[in-house]
Specification:
The protein has 350 residues and is of the alpha+beta class. The chain contains 12 helices and 10 strands. The relative contact order is 0.13.
Length: 350
């Protein structure tokens, strides 16, 4: 059985750009495979993006054979294999190895460890420019995560260095695959934590990360007549509404614990308790586990509130309390702001 995140990620990110087409995150079940709760609830006729995943006999190695080459890097105790399918590419396998290594470092910087023991990444050359589709799955039968990234033949090293796509997809592996109407939570988490992880390894500046949130979080606010995030249908509401949930939870956790812990500690606890993409947990189990790990109740009540009813805030005013100030076309960070210490803790510098 494979569980599928299909994020339709595209690396044309003019700050914070993410694509406008959404595919559902689903789990597949078939004869001889266990049936998930989500598979039982899928509506007929739902669109999905099928992945073509290479099959391996036994453990993949660093050898090259057939149409694909297999290379491996390690992230702590985890093994990450990547394959490059046939097709012209301007970047080399060594360039892709750096791309994979940096994405894995960003995940580890946020989660403290890479969340699953084995992952296979498939790079599929295309005639597009830059990084294209990104999808994440967990193959229960083979017991490893699978990420597929479409990569344009004219992609450059610079494109790879600025790309958030692989980091976003790998972040998904640290959290359960949830049902279609709850995907705002998993997409919101990946959207929120990906740039923080990349910031912590030096790929982004704090100004870039907070400027991105200042620009894009308002896109996740409910419009007139819209309900909670469970009923969200458009891309911005799902991704950026979910990211807003994460920011609100992060700040509340830090305020209630005197900045001792934050959202990352809750998410690390969820993964440590078994709530990764390898699990069959639902969203409610995950947020309850996060609150249990923290010893306070934040994720569950906020998840229920934002899922069931529209929640709107003044994003610029909220971020000013954290010391995020718009200055012309740029963003300045004010360490004298009331919640500046919380912002720095989220950055990983406090």
């Amino acid at each position: 059985m494979r569980k599928l995140f299909s994020c339709n990620s595209k690396n044309n990110r003019n700050p914070g750009y993410k694509p406008t087409v959404i595919f559902p995150c689903i789990k597949h079940s078939s004869a001889g495979m266990k049936t998930s709760r989500l598979a039982q609830n899928l509506q007929t006729g739902m669109l999905f993006l099928a992945l073509v995943v290479s099959q391996f006999a036994g453990q993949p190695t660093e050898s090259s054979s057939g149409k694909e080459s297999q290379q491996m890097i390690t992230a702590g105790d985890s093994q990450i294999f990547f394959n490059v399918e046939d097709g012209p590419l301007a970047v080399s396998k060594a360039d892709l190895a750096v791309y994979v290594r940096d994405a894995a470092k960003a995940v580890t910087a946020y989660y403290g460890t890479f969340p699953i023991h084995k992952t296979v990444i498939n790079f599929v050359p295309s005639d597009d420019d830059g990084i294209g589709f990104g999808t994440s799955t967990y193959d229960d039968d083979e017991d490893y995560g699978v990420v597929t990234i479409n990569i344009g033949e004219n992609t450059t090293r610079r494109n790879l260095r600025s790309s958030w796509t692989l980091t976003h997809e790998l972040m998904h592996l640290a959290f359960p695959v949830v049902s279609h109407h709850k995907r705002w939570l998993s997409e919101g988490i990946a959207t929120y934590v990906e740039p923080i992880g990349r910031m912590r390894i030096g790929s982004l500046s704090p100004e870039e990360v907070w400027g991105d949130l200042l620009t894009n979080l308002p896109k996740g606010l409910p419009r007139q007549g819209e309900g909670g995030l469970r009923s969200a249908r458009n891309f911005d509401r799902i991704y950026w509404g979910g990211a807003l949930y994460c920011l609100l939870a992060d700040v509340e956790i830090r305020q209630r614990t005197n900045n001792r812990v934050g959202l990352e500690d809750a998410l690390r606890s969820i993964a440590k308790q078994g709530g990764t993409a390898a699990s069959n947990w639902d969203a409610e189990e995950a947020v309850q586990a996060g609150d249990k790990g923290l010893g306070i109740s934040v994720l569950q009540p906020l998840y229920t509130k934002m899922g069931e009813q529209p929640v709107s805030i003044d994003v610029p005013a909220y971020l000013r309390k954290l010391g995020v100030v718009k200055s012309g076309e740029t963003v300045a960070l004010d360490d004298r702001a009331p919640l500046a210490a919380i912002r720095r803790a989220i950055d990983g510098t406090e």
